[in-house]
Automatic annotation (TrEMBL):
Protein name in UniProt: SEC-C domain-containing protein
Lineage top rank: taxon: Bacteria
SUPFAM superfamilies: TPR-like
Entry-linked InterPro entries: TPR-like_helical_dom_sf
Record-linked Gene3D superfamilies: Tetratricopeptide repeat domain
């Protein structure tokens, strides 16, 4: 989640410096922490330093999501006059066809913010076609892709299609997307008609509610996953945890069942975080607790998710299963979903 608090209330330069120091102490989380630092620098209007951080990340050979970093770099560059370089990076991101929706949304919104509406619509559509073709239940992370596409198509005066209808269905606020994305809304702000002004206030309140809901859970509701070798080491070191994990096969089945139950209850933004014994022991030490305490396990999962370690669930269609078997999700734990 990128920070959105204005510079009037947060010292963004100091926060960026703190995050850089933290990244030095926790290199395993450096990508997530430095992206946060770059976002703070953008908010402090120090865009050249933000670009330096993006370049620092891109020089690494172990990035989890290089397309996301490139997309953020392009959006930042365009904001302080480097349009040609930004366009070249955006073209490269689109050509790479990332399987993560975030880079698609970022480059499309960058095009949109610079009045490149046709190109933005094409980019949103490319991402939706790649990630959501034959997907009956779009994952939480793909919702901004559909909402952004709906918004741009509305501004272009394009007719609704099946994905626009899907976006309408996913949108839960009391004011419809058609109203929120109505290009004529700007005129109502200068109206002398109290009814029009009241309607616009209601729409703005709806947008604010949606934004607050997104900010209230910036990281997924995550379930802890122990790979087979890590689980064996965990229960050997802390036998009392055997009651939590009778077997690795049961552990994997419980993860999938729990996530499906959460999804069925209406919980969105779900994920899985892989655990390791050294990391768990370090977390327990930071909490002044014993790793043998089962109550620490969900706290450990939440902490990992907050550090950006969660993998979105369910996997995209055709992607490998989260369990690490190497098989496609639909032919592994996703069978019969």
């Amino acid at each position: 989640m990128r920070p959105d608090t204005s510079a009037e209330h947060v010292d963004h330069n100091a926060e960026a410096a703190r995050l850089e120091r933290t990244a030095g102490l926790h290199p395993e989380d450096a990508e997530h922490l430095l992206l946060q630092a770059a976002a703070h620098l953008e908010l402090a209007d120090d865009r050249p330093r933000a670009t330096t951080l993006y370049d620092r990340l891109l020089s690494s050979t172990s990035l989890e999501n290089p397309h996301l970093v490139r997309a953020l770099k392009a959006a930042n560059l365009w904001e302080y006059g480097h349009e040609a370089e930004a366009r070249a990076i955006i073209d490269g991101v689109r050509a790479a066809s990332p399987r993560d929706p975030a880079p698609w949304v970022i480059v499309a919104e960058s095009l949109e913010s610079h009045d490149e509406l046709e190109a933005a619509q094409e980019t949103f559509t490319e991402g939706a076609t790649l990630l959501l073709t034959d997907v009956t239940d779009p994952p939480y992370a793909t919702h901004p892709l559909l909402f952004g596409r709906h918004r741009v198509r509305r501004m272009l005066g394009m007719p609704h299609d099946s994905w626009d209808t899907r976006a309408d269905t996913l949108h839960k606020a009391p004011v419809s997307l058609d109203e929120l994305h109505d290009p004529k809304r700007v005129w109502s702000l200068g109206s002398d008609n109290p009814a029009e002004l009241q309607a616009e206030i209601a729409r703005l309140q709806s947008e604010l509610t949606t934004a607050r809901e997104a900010l209230s859970r910036p990281f997924p509701v995550a379930i802890l996953h122990w790979p087979a070798d890590e689980l064996a080491e965990l229960v050997a070191a802390y036998p009392s945890l055997e009651s939590e994990y009778p077997s690795h096969e049961e552990h994997l089945a419980t993860i999938e069942t729990s996530l499906r139950e959460l999804a069925a209850s209406g919980t969105g933004n779900l994920g899985i975080v892989p655990g390791t014994v050294p990391s768990y022991e370090a977390f327990a030490a930071s909490e002044l607790a014993s790793p043998a305490e089962a109550s620490l396990l969900p706290q450990y999962a939440t902490t990992l998710a907050a550090r950006g370690r969660a993998v979105a669930w369910p996997p995209q269609r055709g992607a490998e299963c989260w369990c690490g078997s190497g098989r496609v999700y639909e032919g592994c734990h996703g069978g019969g979903a």
